[in-house]
Amino acid sequence: MSGKCVLGIDVGTSGCKILAVDESGKILGSAVEEYPCYAPREGWSEQDPGDWWNGVAKGLRKIMPSLAGKTVGAVGFSGQMHGMVALDADRNVVRRAILWNDQRTEKQCAEITEAAGGRDALLGITNNRMLTGYTGGKILWMKENEPENYAKTRYILNPKDYIRYRLCGEIATDVSDASGTGLYNVKERKWASGLMRKIGLDPGLFPKAVESTEAVGRVTREAAAQTGIPEGTVVAGGGGDAVISTTGLGLIKPGRVGVTLGTSGVVAMGLASFLPNPDGKLQVFCGNAPGTYNAMGVTLSAAGSYQWFRNALGDYEAARAKTEGVSAFRLLDDEASKVPPCSDGLVFLPYLTGERAPLNDPNAKGAFLGITARHRKGHFARAVLEGVAFSLKQVYDLIMSVNPGASSDEIVLAGGGANSPVWRRIFADTFGLPVRTVYGSAEGGSFGAALAAGVTAGIWPNLEATVPLIRPESRTEPVGANVPSYAAQYRKYGKFYDALKWSFSD
Questions:
Q1: Helix axes 49-63, 159-168, angle to 10 degrees
Q2: What H or E segment, with its residue span, contains residue 196?
Q3: Residue in 392, 469, 405, 401 with CA at minimum distance from that of residue 435
Q4: Which residues are CB-contacts of 23 (< 8 A; sequence separation ≥ 6)?
């Protein structure tokens, strides 16, 4: 074995994934390490950055021996966006990180919007609303509610940036993750320092923002000893997971729409130039290739909804999975596949942790609707899969409505949920379009992170050159008879939020 390879590290919510990819784009090996998430109050979501580092270091120690004879050209990064990692002057963690799906900052988001001069004025600065998931509201929350912690804080990082710091000792972020703080001028690719001062935050808290393929530093001796990566290996900028996952799907330019089924669900399209974001209903962030952008919408609980269903109601399948050596999700899929399309009228709303797109409502709640005596577990499992597909179809429709001339002749499905044949079928029938998976599509952001690192290492000249490496794997055509049935169920689904909204707030 000889030649170069690159590593892609994805700091996810349920765990970290590490991939090694060679010069042909082939995945040489992978490792996954899980870590806990904490919910000290309803609507709160936190993790310990030390758990991320321990998981990453353990995963790297597992994967490095299999790369004997290969030179690691660079390390790239993906990670859950919007999280707040606060470091003190000695670069120690001040408090547990507040995550992307935390909903505590509604008050602070309103304050930031007001300080900017209202929603339209804020959009004029950042091209994005200040959503409860974004980092900006979290920092202001800490300042108002934990002044002792805020006083200690000297640096604010996103999750993947903390891991990069632990590897190379450099404090930095990239332009896609910076976009997700809500305090970044996306159009001009620079920090919105004036907005920061208006809300009483010191611009010095925020790190330099680099392009995703830019080299940031090199692996230190201490990190090399802990991980097995050779000292001096180049460390790249990387990207926020919702953006760099689309890079791993080949969505560098417009023309194809990608749907990522991770804990959250992302519908995204690459943009060759800046796109205004009317009303701020979408998220328009900097892309991973210099000068590019990304339009997307995020449903907060996609595969996370199915995971909740397994944990809450899948004890039987979980027990079978242990004894039979199969996935509990596959067993639930089997039950769902026995149920007709549209689940005999049963509808699921996937608002388990509030919602971001197509609705911006941190108080939204999940629900099953239309329950009758004939419904069995398989109906409920299928309704969860369908409800997530409907939510993401709403995001897709929104992207198309604000991007004149945009079109897509297929959906590229990615993330762990893309492994499910029944879910792929539901998406094809709901969208009325072929659903394709591609090589690496189930790997999430780690594959895109590895491709970006390959550009940093000089293996490929730019990200566009990596698109031919992303080979088709499966294609699921819509069933003509199912499409109108799903269209009718989709219209019904779209009416339930407004009908139930009154009940979501105390």
A1: 60
A2: helix 193-198
A3: 392
A4: 3, 4, 5, 454, 459
What's the N-to-C CA distance of the chain in angstroms? 62
Q: Are 212 and 244 in contact (CB under 8 A)?
A: yes
Per-residue model confidence (pLDDT) at position 167: 98
The model's pTM is 0.86
As a whole number of angstroms, the distance between CA 343 and CA 432 comes to: 18
Q: How many residues does the chain have?
A: 506
Which residues, 6 or more positions from 494, have their beta carbon under 8 angstroms from its beta carbon? 390, 394
Just list the catalytic residues.
241
The Cα 370–Cα 129 span in angstroms is 34
Burial classification of residue 273, based on how many CB atoms lie within 10 Å of its CB (0-12 exposed, 13-18 middle, 19 or more buried): exposed
Residue 105 in tokens: 């900052």
Distance of CA 52 to the CA centre of its chain: 16
pLDDT along the chain (506 residues), means of 10: 87 95 95 95 95 98 92 97 98 97 94 97 97 96 98 98 98 98 98 97 97 98 98 98 89 82 90 88 94 92 96 96 95 98 98 89 94 98 98 94 82 91 98 93 88 97 93 95 98 97 88
Q: Provide φ and ψ at 21, rounded to 5°.
A: -130, 135
CA–CA distance, 443 with 27 (Å, rounded to integer):
10
